[in-house]
Every structure is written in C-alpha cells, then in structure tokens.
Specification:
Four copies of one chain form a homotetramer.
Chain A lengths: L26 E9 L2 E9 L8 E2 L2 E5 L9 H7 L6 E5 L3 H15 L14 E4 L14 H9 L17 E2 L2 E2 L1 E10 L5 E11 L7 E2 L2 E2 L14 E8 L5 H17 L9 E8 L4 E2 L8 E3 L7 H21 L3 E2 L5 E2 L2 H8 L2
Parallel strand pairs in A: 5-6, 13-14
Antiparallel strand pairs in A: 1-2, 2-5, 3-15, 4-14, 7-8, 9-10, 10-13, 11-12, 17-18
Chain lengths: ~350, ~350, ~350, ~350
C-alpha cells in the first residue's frame, strides 16, 4: 500500500511552495554528510540575497526549553536583529559552523572585527547522536560554505543537511518546511513560513493532525533526547518585540504534534521579518516602518502555529529510512503508515 | 439525547477527585455573584491550610502572553514563593481582591507592613465583560473573605466563582480542574493538579481531545477577547526554577484545545509545590530539601499538559448556560454537543 | 551654616527645569496626605496631555529587583506601550490607585471594558511604613484624581505626593527629578528626564557625587526595607526594546549613590518615549517612525544614568524633615550636611 | 614617582588572596599568546577540582547588556548548573574554545554525546581587536587545555590569558580578581569572589574608588567598543534563582567604576556556588541543602558589588603596557597615575 498523503493542517491557505521560501527572498541550502557512522550536515537559511551582516533583518526569539547549545541568541534578544544567515547543525558541530560564519563574514567584510563590529554567529543545533557519531565532529567549515552557496527557494526536505541524522517521535526526522498565507482583518495579506529541524518527541506521543498514531506503528527506544528548532519567517512588518510573540506561537503548533516540551528537548523558536532591514552602519538612514498593530496579529499567530505543525509533518513525511552508526536505523514514518493501513 | 461524557485526556491516571485538591492540602473556594447584569465572582485557592504569609510555598511563573492585568507575578518571579492564597476574578475587580488580600493578611498578622514585610497580593484575572457588566466593579472585599472561608477539597466547577461570567471558544467557560498521577523513572509517585479559569478561544478553533468541533455547533461572535489562567500544583519537591518549567508545560495542554495564544488572550501559568514551605522569618530554619533531578521531570511535564487540557474540558463540560448583561447568553457546550449527535 | 548646594552630576547639560518635564508634554501632579500617622500620597506622571488610553506611548521596563508590588508591568513588557498615566503611591495603596485608574478610564471612555479593551492600571509603589501607617490604607481613589488634575510641568519635589513618607539612606527621601540633554554622534539633540521615588539605601552606604557621606552624619536604624522607582522619559524615537535598554541604565545611576540593589529594595525602572504614540484602535494608522540606531544610544544611556543619580540627590536635597506615626522622624539630609560642614 | 597603591573598595574584609580562589576549591589558569599582532589568550576557571560535567555547580546569569557572543548561557539559565569549567577568550576564538571544551569532555567521559547527554560549552568573550588581530583566530584548542592544566589558586592577573589584549577605559585592561568575606545577620560567614575580564569603558568616564580620573591622564581614542565579563563565586548555599540575584549585583560594582553599560559593551555576570553540586546522573542522590534565606543575602550582595569593583581595579593596576597589531599600544594605568601625582 502506498502511504497516506501528508495531512493539511488548518484552514489557512499555503503559499505556492508550502515552504518558508514563499516568503520572498528567503532561500535554504544544505550540506549533507552521509557516510557510515557519519550521518549529519549543515542547513543554512538566508533571509535575503544580500549580505546579512550589513543589512540586518529584525528578529525575536522564544525559548520554550533552553536545554540546548545553540549560540548567538543572547545578542538577537538584546539588539533584535540577525547578523548572519541562520545555520543549523548537530550539537557538537556548533563551533565549526560558528567559526565558518565568522570567516565568511570576514571574507566579505574585511574590516569585520577591526574598524567594524564583530559578527554574531547564529547556529542552532539538535543532537543527532543516535544515527551520527557526533564525537567525530565531522562537520567542517567548508560544509557551511557549501550549504550557503547552494541556498535556493526550492530546497530539499527530510533527511538532508542538518536533518540528516535527526529522529522525531522514534521515526526518521529532519528538515521540514511549510507556509501559510494570512489575511489580516484590514484586508492586507502576508506570508508566514516555517522551517523546522525536527528531532524531538517520545514515540508513544505522536499525534498526526489530531489523531494519535496507533501504538503498533510506533518505534520506541526509550526516553526522549531530542530538540526542535523552529524558524519562522514573514514579510509582515513587525518589530523585534512582535517577532518574539510570533515565534512563541510556533510552540502551539509543536504542542499539537504531541510534544510537552520535554526536559531533554531544547525547544527554541526564532522569527524574522523581511519587510525591512536595519543597516549595520549608524550613519545610514534607518527605515521608517509602520509596524502592524498588535490587535491585527492573530492571523499571523495562527499561521505560525499551523505552519510549524505542518513543517513538522513535512519533515516526517519526507525523511527516508536512514542507517547510521553501529547499525542504528531510523525508519521513515511513511513506511509504518503504509503497513498500518487496512 | 444526553451529551457525550467529557473525554479523558492522556494515559496518566487521574487522582481520586480528578481535581487540583488531589494534591494534599489544596482547597478551593468560590464567591459567585449572579444577579442580572452582574455575573462574576472570586475564586480562591489555598495551597495549604496554614497562613500563606508565614509559610510560603515555592512557585514559578510562565507568561505565554502577558496581555493581562494579573498582579503579584513580578515578586513571585524574583523570590520564588507565594505570600498569599491564589485569587482569581474579573479584570476590573483585581484591585478590590488585592485590597482584600492585604486586609486579610493584616488581620491575621498585625505587624504586616510594620515590623514585618508587606504582603504581595496575587490576583489573576480574565475579562468576563460579555456577560458581566465589569464597569460596576461589583466584587467587594467581602467576597474574597467568603471565597476563602468556603475553600474545600470538593469544590464546584463551571460557571462559579471567578468563572461565573467567562466564555471559552464561544461557549460558557469558567473554572475547571483536573489531576494526574505521575510515576517517575525511579518509581516515586507524585500528583500534579490543574485549576484553570478558561475564558479564551475563537469558536472555530475548538478541538476536543484532538477532534475539531463540527462548525455547526460552534457559536461565533467575532474576535477572541479572552484569557486563560492555569494554576498547577504538585506535591513533588521542586524549586522555583523547576516550577517555572512545570508551569510552561500547561501551555502545551492549552495549545491542544485549539489556542494559539491569541493576541488578546493573556495566557499565564503558575505552578507551586506543597512539598515544603519557606518561612517568612529569616530566623526560622530553612528546609533542607532534595529536589527532583531535572532529568526525571518528564512525567510531571506530561501531567501538567494533560491536566491543563483536561481542566479546560472540565470547565466546558461543567459550565451551564448563563445569561448576563444586555440579554447576552453563553450556551453550555454540552447542549450543543447533545444536538450534534446523530 | 547653610547646607551645601546639591552637587551636579556628570558632564551633560540639564534642561531648563532640570526635571522630567523638560521632555515636552510631560507633567507631574501630587496628592499629599500629611496628618499625624498618615504621611503618604499619590504622584501621577502624564506622558502627554491627551488620553493615555487612546494614544499610548511606547515603553520598556527593567526590573533590577522584583521584590515589590507594583502592578501593570507584565502587560507593558508584552505590548510595549502604556495605557494610563504613571501612578506612584505606597505599597498598600496600590489597589486604591489601580481602581481609580480604571474608573478614570471608564469615565473618559465609556466603552472601556465593553466594546473596547480593558485598561491596564500602572501603579508603582514603595513602602513608607516607617513614617506612614500603611495599615490605614488612607489613600482614596479621589487622591488619584486630585494628583492627575494638578499635573504641571513645574511640580514640587521632596516629601510630597507618593514621596511624602519615604526614606532614603536613613534620611528623608521622596520624589526627585532631573533632566539631561544628550547630543548624539550625528548631531541630533534629545532630552532625557528622570523621576524617582527614592525610598532605598542603608544609611552607611550613601555616596554623594562619588563621596561617601561621613559616618557621623548618617542616621541608622537597621536593615534596608525600601525600594526605588525610576521613571525615565525621552523625546528620542525609540521602540520598546530600546526603551528597556534605556531604563536599565538608570540602575547605573542608582548604583553610584551606594545602592547594591538590596534584597528588600524593589528596584524598578521604566522608560517611555514621547516621540510617537500607538493608537488603541487597530483601524487607525500606525506611526511610521525611524527609530534611532542602537549604536547611537550611548549619550542617552549616559543621560539616563546621570539623570537618575541627579534625581535621587534632588529627592534628598528637597525633602524636609518629616514626623509620622508613633513619633517616627526622618531628618532632611540638608540639615545633617549643614552640621557636618567645618 | 611610584604609582599609588590600588585603593581598597568598601568595608568588607578581603580573603587571604583577595582573589576568587579564596572560595575554596576554585582555581584559575591562563594560556597567553603574545607575539606581534597576536595578543590574546584563554583563561579558565575551575569551580572545583573534580569533573565539572559529572558534578555540576549551581549557577545563575544576569545579562546587563546582551550585545556579545558568549556561548552556553541559555542552558545555564534553564537548568541552573554549569557543565564545564568557565572559559574566557576573545570574540572570534569562542568557537575554538567551545570545541576544546567538547573534546576535553569527551576525552574524560567517552560516553558524552552517546549514552550520556552532550556537554554545554560555556565560553565568555570580549573584543580585544585593538591590540590583537582577531581575524587570525590564533587561539587553538590546545590553548584551552594548557590554561586548564595550569589552573591554580595563585594565578596571575592583568595582561594575561584572555586579558592579554583587553582595554579598559582607554588603558590596558584584562583579568582582575578580588574577594570579600561576608558575615550574615545570623553570624555565618561566607566568601564571595570575583573574576573579571575588563575590556570596557570610555576613557573620560573612569572613576577610581569614587574619584573621577583627571582628564589629562586619560587616553582617548573614540567610542567604547568593549565588554566586561564578571564571574562571581561563593561558598554560600544558594540556588540558581538566588545566584542570578547575586550575579546582578556585580553590575552595581561595575557602575561605580564609571560604566553606564554602554551599547557596545556586552556586560554579563555569572555567579556560581561551591556549596553543593548536582550530579549529572539522575540515578545519583540529589543534595538536600538548606539554602540561605533571601532576607539574609544583603552582605553577599554587597560583597558581589564590592568584589567586582575591586577586581576591575586590580585588572587596571596589574595590567602592564602592551603593544599589539599595527603598533597599537595600551598603556598601563599605573604609569599615567605615577605621572599625574604632584
């Protein structure tokens, strides 16, 4: 039997790609390492085609569970902007990717750290140690460059890039994305996109579009040790305070898949807007932007939650069975669902 | 047709009452005002039978959406303890109830605000303005005393106390409670209880135990204007940092009912522990408590989420159709469900 | 001997009044209760002459020590705006003043809490219990109206309004204000004003413009039980995130007076901007404001710190010896300094 | 003329070394790189002699200004414990040191990231780019090991380790340390130690023990670009919530040196306690500790502020004139003070 199609979440329409790249200008690239005990990688999201260090997009962070080793969030919380593309990788590869971000910034901006401020590496991580031998620290700085160079609006999902070795509810997890188109009460239309690195969830807790998965289909090998990174992008004009609010709503979508933000799961959301940028230079003119009124935000909040839930399902549906270190295997959910059907 | 029974949420067993009073020592009382355009009240939760000002239970706060007028949270966040019983009421009655808490504390502790520190009123609120004419500020200080005096382990739920005028997903909301018994990985057993003041939710979003309610049954009179207060109690030995973590997980249960933490909904959770108390006096001995290891907390997190979702359903199931100001009516969900059944 | 003049803090020039009312549009009013054991009051700051509920100024909050009973901060932190004038009073009078703010808002906006959102009372407090018999809860709602009606740019300082019964470093404290004019690196000029309710400090720790006060001059009656509220206003265009940053710098000025943010001292700062307002109505146009670049903020940060330190000194210099309950007396600092001079 | 001796701050006595190593068990080591354009290094603080990953000390974080690239703080805030020794280095070397911490942990705990949780690198940084060519990223993982191996109670201060290239108020800054012995109201005696990486301050703002430095002595080459890291250690039994409170008070000491927490200065404080440890393993017994009552904390808060101010002065007094990249020179403060004396 073929597996059932991935359910559609919510009532809001998706954008043309049903991916975060429906937010104009957003692209995503991967470097995937898949060789025996090394099953890992890097994923990079570019908020726009320009130099992130010079033209900084506004952003906000919501930490649902701070048990994690992501780096760069403190400065985003203080200054409300991103300095770099957003990178994702495995836990022990954060330093390599952070170093790569620094070198890439210096290469493009030779005065970075001299007459210009230092750059703030922004690297998110999940623990892919079940499939990937993290102790090898296999990700190299070149993999960041490779992922960045390959960034495109039509990017792969599933067991690719940072998602290569990830596990979600006992099944193969990884990278998923989705988008929703939200119409405000005043008629304006904005896109909200989600990109997740899905590596969380106790198998017995998986809920698909409101339906708990029958126990027989679930893999189960003990307590949850994962995490999930939720990146929300939008073209709506929001400031950093509002973007933190938007990011937090991704957690509602996460909860609907069965997560209770488990102790061991670093559950972190970041939202950014492409509606304007803040220049690095204090001598450049600042944007004069009419932000959305907070009382209009509910459709965007719904889109953040629905988009995140949809992105998690996309990660599960698109990830293929993967074998890693010590013969460990994570099976694709679709295979289990195909067997389960009457 | 009789309405369907309220669904059971999750796999964890409930305590004997399936209410927060399954946490030993916790009692709840109400003062209900129901007279024409006045449909409101006060609910008081006592964490133990003693004087809350002298023997302070540890507590933590998670603000999912800070759009709200609850008072007293800043000090709980700083000091990690409660000074008073927990009070709930309508938005415009927070001052009256806070004043009542101060007077009650002075009456019991004549040196409060003289040689002893001032007391920190802790009053949560939701906006019951659809049914209740809040502008009358009908709640008086005596109603707090009445609710406190009536606190019992076997308390009413639904359209009572602070829940009298509340609305949830377009139906009659109010007070709900539930409990779950969690067994840790090391075999120890603890109770987690939830008490909610449920006044949130856009009608079209209601999800009951994973199932969206058929559109035909839903009332709908425009944008969400509510809030939800989620009180979590436990007998597990946790410190204030851990209790904040526990409180946040109530938000996962909230999300499963269809909430996306809407802009206008002040969504606030507080968790407390009855496992020990901190004395007001710095001369009294401090408790020497072995807290739970954080890596053991997942069953409690599950209980917080499940208990909160169950408590919201209890509020909906137990609230009866109520008529308030200007002929406004909120119908009981159970009536709609009874009609909906085939 | 006459007492020495109040020292000037820092190198930045003051505005014409050296008071927060140098920020155009800001006015302050007091209601003072001084009758035997009742030595207390209310102070109200209006950020502009209009209706605060309809035209909301942006604001940010920095909680240095959350041991305090101020109300309304949670919503300011979430939404980044003020709904009401800023009120200050004693600890046990917060409910009365909050109720007064609600009634004043309803009187001016009859749909508040009906078709319009509820209003968020914003009331700060310090404990004036040494001089004032707080248990009498003498402040009535009418005192708020009186203070509001009397708001003016040329307001009194010292032992007036909310400052009537306050103590600072063992001397008479109360209301103080100051302003600084800051020139940015790009030549633009903005005013930063400070208003403090000074009720903090262990006597042996007082530092005046860098000079510890000679021990002989200091009163000393045991441990600190006070608090300080620091309100910072500016005409610089800043958003809520930036205003939180500005508010925090008031704490640097506070520290220079000898405070270590003592356990019992609720040290709270709020900063607001008058450069633009956010309409209550989501149907009204939102302001399109070019905020200041964060890299230009240092002169404003300096002004916040210097202004706060100056305002504390003004409170001390302008407060007169006051006798309150049970014959308790707080002496003016100026008297002690006059005696101390050679 | 010899320079004046470093002033003593405050009334509390110092411990025998007047350094953070007066907290029993705390040791500090450096690796210093000083070769032409490379003027940088690594400093490591060990909270105890055991394996930090297995026996985790409780800790709290206070972010006064989050403009910085330190890594690891999010998890400390969530879990309230440290996993690793505390490392300090320059901004662009955070990844190298974080990688070194991971490898060191794996070497000592081969199951780290396999059957055991991953380790949380904790690396603080300041920008030493005026003297040090940060773009060379000269710090290697071996330097971390070297600093760790050399950790001792009698460690050098000034232009050593991470302090090698740092600048403070236009003078040579770097590593400073101090301690204070605090006697609580109940007679118990505890030690509070401070270690700072001092790299902040606009030259015209330096205040030494309350006295502004005469303008003539101050170097001045434009806007502040620095940061300061403040590590507070104590043997007092405090939990993570209380340690955050203790850390924040270091900021009061910082402010007294003339800092207003400038925009470009990432001002971050972390406090830890050696009074007990939390085991990594949830199967090991948890400590049953009677924490200090919060109402007793003021002497510790004073010690945190005074110790931090003293440590900053120690950094200035002990740092020697250093020449770095492109002929840049930072002069020792002591030289300027010697010239300034009449």
């Amino acid at each position: 039997m073929p597996p059932p199609a991935c359910p559609r979440i919510g009532r809001l329409p998706a954008g043309p790609r049903d991916a975060i790249s429906d937010v104009t200008g957003v692209t995503v690239g991967h470097a995937t390492l898949a060789d025996g005990a090394v099953q890992t990688g890097v994923t990079v999201l570019r908020p726009h085609a320009g130099e992130a260090y010079l033209q900084r997009v506004p952003a906000g962070v919501a930490v649902l569970n701070g048990f994690g080793k992501s780096t760069g969030l403190m400065q985003v919380q203080e200054l409300g902007v991103l300095d770099t593309p957003i990178a994702l990788t495995n836990t022990f590869s954060v330093p390599a990717v952070a170093a790569a971000q620094i070198r890439a910034c210096i290469a493009a901006n030779p005065e970075c750290g001299r007459s210009l401020p230092t750059v703030n590496p922004l690297v998110f991580e999940c623990n892919d140690g079940y499939l990937n031998d993290m102790q090898r620290m296999a990700v190299q700085e070149a993999h960041y460059a490779q992922a960045l160079a390959g960034a495109t609006a039509d990017f792969a999902q599933g067991a690719v890039g940072a998602g290569r070795g990830m596990t979600c509810f006992g099944f193969k997890g990884g990278i998923g994305s989705a988008s929703r188109v939200a119409t405000l009460g005043d008629g304006r239309v904005f896109t909200v996109g989600a990109l997740v690195l899905a590596n969380f969830g106790a198998p017995q807790n998986l809920v698909i579009a409101g339906r708990p998965l029958a126990a027989g289909a679930a893999a189960n090998d003990g307590p949850e040790k994962g995490s999930v990174i939720m990146i929300i992008g939008t073209d709506a004009p929001l400031d950093a305070r509002q973007l933190r609010r938007l990011a937090l709503r991704a957690g509602a979508g996460l909860a609907r898949t069965g997560s209770v933000f488990g102790h061991g799961s670093g559950d972190i959301a970041l939202a950014f807007s492409t509606a304007y940028t803040v220049p690095l230079s204090p001598h450049a003119p600042m944007p004069a932007v009419a932000m959305l009124h907070d009382a209009l935000l509910d459709p965007l909040f719904q889109a953040s939650a629905d988009g995140c839930e949809q992105a998690i399902l996309h990660a599960l549906w698109r990830a293929q069975t993967t074998t890693g270190r010590d013969g460990h295997v994570r099976h694709a959910l679709t295979g289990a669902l195909a067997q389960e059907q009457p």
